[in-house]
Amino acid sequence: MMKANEVKRRALGVHSRVPKIWRLRLYVAGQTPKSLVALSNLKKICENHLSGRYTIEVIDLLEKPKLSGGDQILAIPTLVRKLPKPVRKIIGDLSDTERVLVGLNLRPAG
Amino acid sequence: MKINGTKASIGASRLQKCPTGIHGLDEITGGGLPRGRATLVCGGAGCGKTLFASEFLVRGAKEFGEAGVFVSFEETDVELKVNVASLGFDLAGLVKQKKIVLEHVYIERSEIQETGEYDLEGLFVRLNLAIDSIGAKRVVLDTLEALFAGLPNEAILRAELRRLFRWLKAKGVTSVITAERGREQLTRHGLEEYVSDCVILLDHRVNDQIATRLMRVVKYRGSLHGTNEFPFLIDADGLSVLPITSLGLNHKVSSARVSTGIPRLDAMLGGRGFFRGSSILLTGTPGTGKTITAACFAQAAAQRGERVLFFSFEESPDQIIRNMHSIGLRLEPLVKGGLLRFCAARPTLYGLEMHLATMFKEIAAFQPAVVIMDPITSLMVAGTDYETKGMVTRLIDYLKGGQVTSLFTSLTHGGHALQQSEIAMSSLMDSWMLLQDLEGNGERNRVLYVIKARGMAHSNQIREFLISNRGIDLVDAYIGPSGVLTGSARMAQSAREKAEVLVSQQKAARDKRELEFRREALERQIGGLHSECLSNAEELRRIERQVGTQTRLLTNQRTELGRLRHADASAANGTPVDPNSKHRR
């Protein structure tokens, strides 16, 4: 985890205009095992990398299907990074932490 | 259920069809696409897949009252509206009326990071929402293959697609799924694996630089369907498929006759012209007056108040009107009056099928009583002989079905060989007239024969075909010992004949006069003889008188003599003859 934090700082150093708040939105469809796994994975990653600087909004499309169009949701679960811009999408249950970090641009790809 | 027992059982045993409203497609498929199932429409780029799909939805909404959802993976809502508007579909209007929902699904691989397990429930949710929002019965997915480009995990994708098609079926919507044509399989990503009820293949083929669109129903589970490749076209009214084989030979015939516009030609055709609804072939070498004859026929029909559709493949309408003006045909007022309509297109503009389809559309729209194709042979450059014949067959069938009289001009090149190449086509025709050039005497003259005219007594005579500024006239050609004489030779011959008549008339008069003279002479002679005869008779009488007198004298003399000789007194008294007197003489 220390290693990950170092990387995060480096990454933040690269991006000079670091926003105060990371707004993340997780789209799910019902309380499926995949959704639950995704939410717990997301919470873990955020705590480790964005402690105190993030909000997570969980949207259940079975309850609010109309919201599916706005973010062009196809896959479930999908994590959308609303802020900082640009918007990025990560699909899947977020079990691959490395790829989530790359996807959120917390770590350079490669 | 039992009330309509038979109907219900038939309905249950047969696949329900969902009419597409696309011209011709419902005929090929026997009623439309399988209702409540998915149809795969595949084909290469630019072959009309998206248009097919949008027409299916638009016509469904407008003509069959079935709302539809268009899920586009490639084009945005705005792009889609603009694209189909060019084909006469008011998608935006239908969207406003809540008859169609456009759902643009945007996937950009570079924006997506895949981390672990997922499914496409989001797509299902959106689709479900769209379908339920307007109670859609039809769904189009155009094209699902974008998913393969956008989502890296093919295993998940394939599983989800399988689920999607099951879900669509369960939802009871009739869906059209478009897909790009693959190299070795129907679709690039093997979608035919999932959509197995109905597969339609679209093709856009280029032969000799002429493109033809073709459609084939590859598969239609649970239904009979046409298996041929059917040409189709895309124009301002959307798609039109041309089912060829659905045409039969069972059209009604009419015994009404229509004038050709040339009185002498009518006379050659049993006095009353062609049969209404028959097909007429007019072949001729270049410059023999085919177009003029056709124009005459057109004018006559339009003047009777019938609509005439004139397809011209070589001349523009204005040019025809101008040229016909020079021989006294006034076509312009007929065009303005809406009775005569010209459709001019270069044969190479598009393929034969497109021509045919265009003609069908024009004919259906204008509803003419007479159709003229000038010349049909031009279309041969757009296809092979076989194709052209097939096309003409279909055209004639179509026209006959509608009781439309059709006149086809056909250009032949050169001598007699051409007449042969025309035979294939001529067998389709009810009447066949041949216009020919006769060369001789330093000039070319046009002649016309009626080669055949089914169902009517027609003249077997050759007629000279004269074009003057007063129109067409047919003149009896002179047939003499040296063959057919036309033009100035015919004139010379008739002048010669006139002179001969004159000469013989003069000779007769002369002969008559001579005879008259001779008769008069004879009569004079007779008069002479008669008077001679009279004088002879006079002479005879004089002689007779003389003889009588002499006899009397002789008797007297004898009596005198007897008296003198003292003969019997009685005897001497009875016959007083004085022989002395005679002696004294």
Report on this model:
The complex is a heterodimer of chains A (110) and B (585). By secondary structure, chain A is an alpha+beta fold. Chain A has a single domain (2-103), classed as Glutaredoxin (3-Layer(aba) Sandwich), CATH 3.40.30. Chain A has helices at residues 2-14, 33-49, 97-103, and strands at 22-28, 54-60, 78-83, 88-91. Chain A has a 4-stranded mixed beta sheet, with helices on one face. In chain A, α2 (33-49) links the parallel β1 and β2. The radius of gyration of chain A is 14 Å and the shape is globular. Chain A starts with a helix and ends in a 7-residue tail after the last helix. Chain B has 3 domains: 15-241, Rossmann fold (3-Layer(aba) Sandwich); 257-476, Rossmann fold; 491-569. Helix content of chain B is 42%, strand content 24%. Chain B has 19 helices and 25 strands. In chain B, β10 (210-220) and β11 form a beta hairpin. The interface between A and B is medium-sized, with 32 and 25 residues.
